[in-house]
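note to self — DONT lose this again. spent like an hour looking for the file last time. sequence + predicted structure for the chain T wanted, 217 res
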Amino acid sequence: MKKFVSKSEIKRCVILISLLFIYTIICAFSYVNAVSTNIENSVFRLHVIANSDSSEDQNLKYIVRDKVLEYINTISADITSKEEVIALVKENINELQKIAEETVYENGYDYPVSLSIGNFSFPTKTYGDISFPAGFYDALKIEIGEAKGQNWWCVMFPPLCFVDVTSGIVPDESKETIKDNLSEEEYKLLSENSSNVKFKFKVIEMFQNISIKLAQS
């Protein structure tokens, strides 16, 4: 004899599936929130925005970037934490402003330059064999002129601004600094390419991109 499923049983199954789905979403969100928050709290970035997308303005952006990084590199050799980097940048913000402005003027432009330290949204970015998921990171932002051109960004701490991305390898010293500031699970998310790790990274990336879009709407 055929056994018919009653409406109450169907309803019960739908409720159970719905609850399971909601539970899975909550667990995923909790995981993403915990991991992404710790990664974001361990990183300080540099963000340079060009006046426009013209080739001249984009080239100027890179010249300003190089001059600023050259100075930061000379004063941050012994830095071992994000807090130290932020304190150092704050102490030298006037000098960094002066360097950026003089670089602009020396290259034949009269654009104003604005420097600020804050918490800003960033897309996913890969530095050699280390990838940072999209999210909200503390950073030093340098805006040149109208700041309507393409962005350039790097990680000042851990020190990845000088990584040669064409080599596809981050120096061991930089990796050790990252390891010291993250859990084993978090470091694997940034550095490993196994299918399981890639899936977790994509989940974090998806949730963070949604958060960024909601914050910008």
